[in-house]
């Protein structure tokens, strides 16, 4: 991909592509049935997106992902965070 492409995304979203790539790499071998792992990912996405997540919302997201109702990816968590 073109470096300018990533710069344009960063400008529009305020999210650094290095953070997104780092998060994606950390998800590759993560155990998404482990509540602590899922909480860590949610907190990381919240931090990257600059969207605070309440304890209640975090619990709801964790329950949904650990139970297998939702797949764990940046897009899914981002959508859940933005619903609050």
Topology:
Layout: H1 3-13, H2 17-27, H3 35-49, H4 55-66, H5 74-83
Helix pairs in contact: 2-3, 3-4, 3-5
Protein name: Stage VI sporulation protein F
InterPro entries: SpoVIF
Organism: Metabacillus herbersteinensis
Characterization of the model:
This is Stage VI sporulation protein F. InterPro entries: SpoVIF. Pfam families: SpoVIF (PF14069). It is built from 5 helices and no strands. The relative contact order is 0.14. With 84 residues, it is mainly alpha-helical. The N and C termini lie far apart (33 Å). It has one domain.
- Please work out how many helical segments DSSP would assign: 5
Order of helices and strands: HHHHH
Give the % helix: over 70%
Describe the biggest sheet? none
What fraction of residues sit in β-strands?
Answer: under 5%
Return Rg in Å.
Answer: 13 Å
Distance between the termini: 33 Å
Number of strands: 0
Low-confidence stretches: none
Sheet/helix structural class = mainly alpha
Mean pLDDT, to the nearest integer, reads 80
Domain module tally: 1
The shape is globular
Oligomer: single chain
